[in-house]
Design goal:
With 264 residues, the protein is of the alpha+beta class. 32% of the residues lie in helices and 23% in strands.
């Protein structure tokens, strides 16, 4: 780990100022990605800006939506009676992230800002058509994700909350890496105010993406059987020691069917 300065601002304005003043500064949310890369000397920030005291945690259900503060940990989302009642698929997703240590440190805002191509939350955000709110603006899910580890966030822009429309039906199913539990393939399906949406994580080289062929089939007939014959190409699939591109493409079909069945 290299030397760096550490600051823990008590206001959002101060945090933004600290990040804007130093192009090499990094924000620290739950630290589940940043701390390991610091230890491995894969990142060398001049300043680490801790967001823990900004008051950005909490869950609010209002009308037809659920809003989750950026610093809300996965464990809190999984345990929330409000989330379980409004969007049980989202609570189940949060409860399946990593292990208990990760769920009690990792945050939804940190996951969204990092946009790891195997992360679970991006699939829920994209499939539910959520809105990402920052200190500057609101960003739709379709505009937010821009590729592997790449988002629409600008320098000095911090996520403050994520708002999810409450769906009529939804489910998330993932094929876990047996060691780390990350999604080798994860599929979140939803039907509701944003229509039928299917988001896939863990499989694509560019990160999370919408499975439009599955969306079209399910829009005509919401059933696993409607996905018979629906396939996805291998050109943009991940391929590594755990699973080849053709295997991941096959898993997308299998897991999507399971998610539709789970949604009911």
């Amino acid at each position: 780990m290299y030397d760096f300065s550490y600051v823990k601002p008590s206001s959002l304005a101060d945090a933004v100022a600290a990040l804007s003043a130093d192009a090499e500064a990094k924000a620290l949310a739950g630290g589940q990605t940043l701390i390991p890369v610091l230890k491995q000397r894969l990142n060398k920030p001049t300043t680490v800006v801790d967001l823990a005291k900004l008051g950005l945690s909490g869950i609010t259900v209002s009308g037809d939506s659920v809003t989750i503060g950026a610093m809300t940990i996965h464990g809190a989302v999984a345990a929330s009676a409000d989330v379980r009642r409004a969007i049980p698929a989202l609570a189940a997703l949060a409860g399946g992230i990593g292990d208990i240590q990760v769920r009690n440190r990792g945050t939804i805002g940190g996951s969204m800002a990092n946009n790891d191509p195997t992360a679970c939350y991006p699939s829920a955000v994209l499939a539910l058509g959520a809105t990402i709110t920052t200190n500057k603006r609101s960003i739709s899910a379709d505009d937010y994700f821009q590729g592997m580890f790449t988002t629409a966030l600008e320098p000095g822009e911090l996520i403050t909350s994520v708002t999810f429309p409450i769906p009529a039906k939804a489910a998330y199913v993932k094929f876990k890496n047996p060691a780390s539990r990350y999604a080798m393939v994860g599929v979140f399906v939803a039907t509701g105010p944003k229509g039928v949406r299917v988001a896939v994580t863990g499989a694509g080289q560019g990160g999370v993406f919408r499975h439009t062929a599955a969306e079209q089939a399910l829009s005509a007939n919401w059933s696993a059987a409607a996905l018979n014959g629906v396939s996805i190409g291998t050109d943009n699939m991940n391929s590594d020691i755990h699973a080849s591109a053709p295997y991941r493409a096959h898993l997308v079909g299998v897991i999507t069917k399971r998610a539709v069945t789970a949604a009911g």
